[in-house]
From TrEMBL, chain A:
Organism in which the protein naturally occurs: Paracoccus versutus (Thiobacillus versutus)
Biological classification of the source: Bacteria, Pseudomonadati, Pseudomonadota, Alphaproteobacteria, Rhodobacterales
Source domain of life: Bacteria
Listed name of the protein: Heterotetrameric sarcosine oxidase gamma subunit
InterPro entries for this protein: TrmE/GcvT-like
From TrEMBL, chain B:
Assigned keywords, A-Z: Oxidoreductase
GO biological process terms, semicolon-separated: tetrahydrofolate metabolic process
Location of the GCVT N-terminal domain: 593-864
Keyword presence, Oxidoreductase: yes
UniProt entry tagged with the keyword rRNA-binding: no
Classification via InterPro entries: 2Fe-2S-bd_N (IPR042204), FAD/NAD-bd_sf (IPR036188), GcvT/YgfZ/DmdA (IPR028896), GcvT/YgfZ_C (IPR029043), GcvT_C (IPR013977), GCVT_N (IPR006222), Sarcosine_oxidase_asu (IPR006277), SoxA_A3 (IPR041117)
Protein name: Heterotetrameric sarcosine oxidase alpha subunit
Aminomethyltransferase C-terminal domain mapped to chain residues: 882-969
Domain SoxA A3: 493-577
Molecular-function annotations in GO: sarcosine oxidase activity
PANTHER family: AMINOMETHYLTRANSFERASE, AMINOMETHYLTRANSFERASE, MITOCHONDRIAL
Length: 196, 977
């Protein structure tokens, strides 16, 4: 065990956690990430029993999850395992795959609503050019938010994860916080949140 | 003036406001213009050029005249149209473009001098002497011809942006828009209904014709209630769709707080990007006026606007009014105002066969010849059958027909088409894909036509999406033809305004014709017609018609006018989308940022990165002192620098080596596992592009580094090569730039320092020689990567750990190396160290240099092919003799200035004698004088020669001696120690 003390992507000792009305953002500092890419001719594996999702999707298994990032490419998530060499663990069971540690390449912010899906949909509207109707639970995509490349993952109707470059964590946090603050402060839209 | 009966204002409440310091009151539902008219104020502004007194001519967003400065302090907003400014309690507005008071504007002298201000006057008048232009003419003209004033303070309000998606976007909530929205919403598709007004209904709110026998606002309220109850439809009031862009994307501004004294905690406006599968443009039509002499006095307005003020806002601009028309629609204004008890001085109808449809004096086959009234209309001259008579009236409604609001239909350079039947331009067929015009915007302006056209357009749009939308039952509505007989202007001697906002008259257009500025594009630039905040909404078509008369060609052959976004003015603040100041663009911070801050580092922007530039210590008063200390400490002891910003790409796969062989100009497949090699990438055209290192961690696993600036482009290039050029290769790529904190540890004590943190790893020269690389653990089990590479020319390593530990590792190294002279250094010292060593960086890899010029010509392998290799052997490239050299001043006190060009001593200094340039320079604390790197013709053969560095911008000419670019340790012994 190293005697060096890590800091979070936002440069603090503990993960950020803030509530904005119905939504709460938490920095997920414990999320281990590893990219998984099929080598030529390799069969699609099932890491730790997880059936890897197709394009635009995110799938969750036992203590592991993954989202599609390109043809034959996924990002594998392991909550709470950032301190380990998760990529090495994953790679050991994945012959025929290229695995690369991505844990510290990203800052992950988990957004949870305590009033159902409407606030999450309203946030999506302000955050990125994503149609909430086509981005239900189990969706994941790479997109642009406030000039930053991000992954958005709809983990549940009332949950959204935003993964951005670790070096941009401060700017991403500011963008999320400012969007949520403005949204909380603004009057409710005329006609509520359209749900089809 | 008191209020008329009826109207859609809430008389139960009063709102107090001021205009030019005077207090007035209005009601909720009023605009600033309607409230001022209700208080008897017709004069609201001064014209742009002649400072003529002006009042509102419209009741909508097309307004050219009634522009005011709204609000105070930092929120002061110039050029706000009083006709769309929603009244709120405490509103404060001021007239603009005046010197003195609005009633006695000192600049009104311009009107007397009008012969000097004809079209194109500034191109002709203010030519000489040339020196007067910037200092005298331009400031004077700008002051005289200004619109409103800026507050010159930062915008205190917040803005936001957002993205919406729908099946059908309906632009405009008048008869056509409501019918379209209802049709589509009932079919269950996702609909957005946007209107710039604060109240739905459009023109229905301004007319008295019943729908199914009931007042139109009642029908509107019923539709509104149904639409509001449907979850698949979103109503966006106070929202202007200002542009149609590619792929069904529309720009829209929602004004959340412009009707309030100030935003209530939330954003003032939101910029929406609306992606719609289909769009219905139901933006209505703008009435056009008919130019006649002195047609710009306050009180003269569009007849439809006069009717709107009376019906919607219960206001008449005067107790006695007249109407000038060339069609039946003008008579409606007389009927509606008469019904409200306003005196009708007469309807002057240019059609000889006109008949009165109510109890008012009719002057058929007549025109307006002239008008009187200095600050507001008092009399009009009616010319009929060769006779002239003067009528007293305080307002005149002018009805010249309606121009469809087809602006968005021409945003993809769609050309409007002239309709001889309608005497108007209608949307052409080459507009934005998926956009359908309906109602008055399509030229179908009767209420019945608009309702039907809107519903049918929605049905048609949805049919294209394979959705069947039944037509709703539409109410019975008026369906009157206009019977328009064109009259484009009344010929005469006086000035007749075509474009009110830019003070362009019929005479100006005649002058443009006379001077051969006949194409509409020339007409616009020459006269300024159609420019400024209203973009000619009430002027362009009329001007075209006047030009057509002058040329004798039909309007259809004279040209068209097309429009670009935005439809109405959009503030720059909302275009920023809420990101401003320090957050205007994202910033990237290095893993050691917090530590560097705690050390008092000075930071520098490097692209999006903030990097520590240098670390000043107490007592250091100049940056050079700090940088010199950092450089010398590194050369003497050990320096530590965060180099995380260099791009890192993980390359894996059975063909990783073959892939890198093709990517770099030098060989990489032959690199042994556990070793690192310098690599140079060329562009396809053979020019040097980017350099870095390539480390082989395993047979099928490399990590390559790029420069900071090119990290993104190189990664993109690699993905392009992998996916498109050589998909047959087994290669997988992913960026790991942010994942690893990478620190450079350089200097004679580098090994001793690292020995204190590695977990039993053998760092001896034998076990870990120059250019070695390895995975290891440090500080008690932390996984790390170590590379023995040097940018400084010293014994040096780069150590990488997971980014979250970068801060702690930096602190640990500085602490653990205190006795070894461990010193953090920033980008300035980094630059000095590499220039002293003669390493190329971005200044040398500037897109104009080749491997040969960089002294690395032999690196371009002839044994294998790689991107750019063949082109680098082009004749012209091989003939290039400028190569990288070192330069130092003959007189050590002299500077070396980067950017200077190199010449032979005694030569004239011009392009023909140019021998090269200085790419990088610094003060070398090691040598005690300035040094530089540059490219010099036949440089390698000219060591010791004295040349001249010319910097004509600063009048400098410095003799320099040509030397080896390696000022430090040219044999490279230090880094191999």
């Amino acid at each position: 065990m190293t005697d060096l003390t890590p800091i979070t992507a936002l440069g603090a000792a503990t993960p950020a956690d803030q509530r904005f009305g119905a939504l709460r953002i938490t920095e997920n500092a414990g999320l281990a990430l590893a990219s998984l890419a099929l080598r030529r001719g390799a069969a699609q594996p099932a890491p730790l029993g997880l059936a890897l999702p197709g394009p635009g999707r995110w799938a969750e298994g036992q203590g592991i999850a993954a989202f599609w990032t390109g043809p034959g490419q996924w990002m594998v998530e392991a909550p709470g395992r950032a301190a380990e060499d998760f990529a090495a663990v994953l790679a050991a069971g994945m012959p025929g795959c290229s695995v690369t540690d991505q844990t510290d390449g990203w800052a992950a912010f988990e957004i949870v609503s305590d009033r159902g899906e409407a606030p999450i949909r309203a946030l999506l509207e302000r955050l990125a050019n994503i149609d909430p109707d086509g981005f239900g639970p189990g969706s994941a995509t790479r997109t642009l938010a406030h000039h930053m490349g991000v992954f958005l993952i709809r983990r549940a109707p009332d949950r959204l994860a935003v993964l951005g470059m670790r070096s941009m964590a401060g700017s991403l946090w500011h963008a999320l916080a400012a969007t949520l603050r403005r949204q909380g402060a603004a009057a409710a839209p005329d006609d509520g949140f359209p749900i089809v | 003036m008191t209020r008329l009966s009826g109207g859609l204002v809430d008389r139960s409440r009063s709102l107090s406001f001021t205009f030019d310091g005077r207090r007035y009151s209005g009601h909720p539902g009023d605009t600033l213009a309607s409230a001022l008219l209700a208080n008897g104020v017709r004069l609201m502004g001064r014209s742009f050029k002649y400072h003529r007194p002006r009042g509102p001519i419209s009741a909508g967003s097309e307004e050219p005249n009634a522009l005011v400065e709204l609000r105070d302090g930092a929120r002061q907003e110039p050029n706000t149209r009083a006709t769309v400014a929603e009244l709120y309690d405490g509103l404060r507005a001021r007239s603009q473009n005046r010197v003195g008071s609005l009633r006695f504007d000192l600049m009104a002298v311009n009107d007397r001098l009008s012969p000097f201000f004809a079209a194109g006057f500034y191109y002709k008048t203010f030519m000489w002497p040339r020196a007067f232009w910037e200092k005298l003419y331009e400031p004077a003209i700008r002051r005289a011809a200004g619109l409103g004033r800026l507050s010159m303070q930062p915008d205190p309000d917040e803005y936001d942006k957002g993205f919406l998606h729908c099946d059908l976007l309906v632009i405009g909530a008048g008869a056509a828009g409501l019918a379209a929205a209802l049709t589509a919403a009932r079919a269950g598709v996702r609909v957005i209904l946007a209107d710039e007004d604060f109240r739905l209904g459009g023109r229905l709110l301004a007319e008295t014709h019943p729908l199914d026998g009931a007042p139109a606002p009642e029908w509107v309220a019923g539709v509104e209630a149904e639409l509001a109850s449907l979850p698949n439809l979103r109503i966006m009031r106070r929202t202007t769709v200002f542009g149609a862009f590619d792929h069904g994307v529309h720009g829209a501004v929602e004004r959340l707080a412009d009707h309030l004294p100030q935003p209530q905690g939330g954003p003032r406006q939101v910029l929406w990007r609306i992606t719609a599968r289909r769009t219905i443009l139901a933006a209505g039509a703008t009435e056009r006026h008919i130019p006649f002499a002195n047609n710009d006095r306050p009180g003269i307005m569009l007849a439809g606007a006069m009717r709107a003020y009376a019906n919607r806002w219960a206001v008449s601009p005067a107790e006695r009014v007249a109407v000038f028309t060339n069609n039946d629609d003008g008579h409606r204004t007389a009927l509606d105002l008469a019904a409200k008890g306003v005196g009708i001085a007469g309807v002057i109808d240019s059609r000889a066969d006109a008949v009165a449809v109510g109890d008012y004096p009719l002057f058929a086959g007549a025109v307006i010849g002239d008008t009187r009234g200095r600050l507001g209309l008092t009399r009009i001259e009616v010319r009929q059958h060769g006779r002239s008579q003067w009528l007293d009236c305080g307002a005149l409604g002018v009805a010249g027909g309606w121009n469809p609001n087809l602006h968005l239909a021409s945003h993809h350079r769609g050309r409007p088409v002239w309709s001889d039947a309608l005497h108007a331009f209608v949307p052409g067929k080459d507009g934005p894909a998926g956009l359908i015009a309906a109602g008055a915007a399509e030229g179908r302006g009767s209420t019945a036509q608009a309702l039907r056209s809107g519903a049918e357009a929605a049905r048609r749009a949805l049919a294209e999406l394979d959705v069947n939308a039944p037509l709703p039952d539409l109410p019975q509505a008026e369906d009157q033809a206009q019977n328009l007989h064109p009259l484009w202007h009344v010929p005469g001697k006086g000035r007749a305004w075509v474009d009110f906002q830019n003070d362009v008259t019929v005479k100006d257009i005649a002058l443009a014709h006379q001077e051969n500025m006949r194409p509409v594009e020339h007409l616009k630039r020459w006269t300024t017609l159609g420019m400024a905040t209203d973009q000619g909404k009430t002027a362009n078509v009329t001007a075209l018609a006047v030009m057509s008369e002058l040329t004798g060609k039909p309007i259809a052959q004279t040209g068209t006018t097309i429009f670009r976004p935005p439809y109405t003015p959009v503030s720059l603040s909302v275009l920023g989308g809420g990101d401003s100041g320090a957050h205007f663009r994202p910033r990237r911070l290095t893993p050691t940022h917090a530590w560097a801050q705690s050390q008092g580092a000075v930071f520098v922007e490097v692209g999006p990165w903030m990097r520590a530039q240098y670390f000043p210590r107490a007592g250091e008063t100049h940056w050079r002192q700090t940088v010199d200390r950092e450089v010398l400490a590194t050369r003497k002891g050990v320096g530590i620098c965060d180099v995380t910003t260099l791009g890192k790409v993980d390359v894996q796969g059975a063909d990783a080596g073959a892939f890198l062989d093709r990517l770099y100009c030098n060989a990489m497949a032959s690199l042994r596992v556990g070793m690192t090699r310098y690599g140079l990438m060329l562009r396809e055209d053979g020019v040097a592009w980017d350099d870095g290192t390539c480390a082989r961690l395993a047979a099928d696993h490399y990590v390559v580094t790029t420069t900071t600036a090119q990290a993104g482009p190189v990664y993109r290039h690699m993905e392009f090569a992998r996916q498109c050029l050589w998909p047959e290769l087994d290669v997988q790529l992913i960026s790991t730039t942010d994942a690893w904190a990478q620190l450079s540890v350089a200097g004679p004590n580098a090994r001793r320092l690292l020995e204190r943190i590695v977990d039993g790893f053998d760092l001896s020269n034998e076990a870990f020689p120059f250019m070695a690389c390895a995975g290891l653990t440090v500080c008690g089990g932390l996984r790390a990567r170590l590379f023995r590479i040097s940018f400084s020319g010293e014994l040096a390593y780069e150590i990488a750990v997971p980014a979250r530990y970068g801060d702690a590792l930096m602190a640990r190294l500085v602490e653990a190396g205190a006795d070894l002279g461990a010193t953090p250094y920033g980008t300035e010292a980094l630059g000095v160290l590499r220039i002293e060593k003669g390493h190329a960086a971005g200044n040398e890899l500037n897109g104009q240099t080749s491997a040969q010029m960089l002294g690395m010509g032999r690196m371009v392998s002839a044994k294998k092919d790689g991107i750019g290799a063949v082109m680098s052997r082009r004749e012209g490239m091989l003939a290039e003799t400028r190569v990288l050299v070192g330069l130092q001043p003959v007189d050590p006190a002299q500077p070396v200035v980067p950017g200077s060009h190199l010449f032979r001593q005694g030569d004239a200094q011009d392009t023909w004698t140019d021998q090269g340039w200085i790419s990088s320079a610094c003060h070398s604390p090691h040598l005690g004088h300035a040094i530089g790197l540059g490219f010099l013709e036949n440089g390698a053969a000219r060591m010791g020669e004295v040349i001249v560095a010319a910097n004509p911008l600063q009048g400098q000419s410095v003799p320099l001696r040509v030397v080896s670019p390696h000022f430090i340790d040219p044999e490279g012994g230090r880094l191999r120690d």
